[in-house]
Write a structure and sequence with these properties.
Helices cover about 30% and strands about 15% of the residues. With about 240 residues, it is an alpha/beta fold. It has a single domain, classed as 3-Layer(aba) Sandwich (Rossmann fold). Helix 1 crosses helix 2. The two termini are about 15 Å apart. About 45% of the residues are buried. The chain binds fructose -6-phosphate.
Amino acid sequence: MKVIVTKNTEELAEQALQVMLDVVKNKPNAVIGLATGSSPVGLYKKMIEDCKINGTSYANIKSVNLDEYVGLGIESDQSYVYFMNDNLFKGIDIKQENTNLPNGKAADMAKECERYTALLNSMPQDIQLLGIGANGHIGFNEPNTPFDSTTHIVELEEGTRRDNARFFASLDEVPTHAITMGIANIMNAKKILVVANGANKAKAVYQMIKGEVSENCPASILQKHNDVIVVVDEAAYSLCK
Ligand code: F6R
């Protein structure tokens, strides 16, 4: 696991951009695994800027996202499909048909889980971007999710719903369930890039980097992957020193 500690979120986004560009430029038809939430927003801004200024092209890139809320779709500005269009896809030249997210509104969610895992198996991620939850979750794989899990439906922990309530009008509006790539699907990526900032992530970052590998902290499994780059700010790294 390679760890890069940055002074601030600006530098964090810049370092993460270099990791992403290394993949995209070396393999113009790469499959990039993407995440939502606050952590990747700075990186996405930089990808858009770089695409416009330096002409980096995503025309042949395919993307797969980690997760989606059950019950939400593109018409909801809280959905992850909306978030991705708004924060990244509309600003780069990726083809809409090459972008993939689990469908939170599928009529049969069990079938949707199967479909998404089959899709991931047919196009393994050259890089998977991850944020980390304060409880150590990756994707929406909450503590005690089996390491061999594939795409599944998860009941969100109360703390996760509270953490994400900032994006909704009230806590009651935060969905109770999500569909997420499993930990095995994440570990199948050739390279993994984790971004985390802020003191509220310090404990999870410590457990991910230095803690025991245990299903109590899903991110700790990343210690077993052979190509992980963690880009954090000082606050998120503070307990690792
Ligand atoms: C998002 C996701 C989550 C977040 C994590 C951190 O697609 O799968 O694991 O990465 O909850 O969220 P933020 O970045 O909002 O602190």
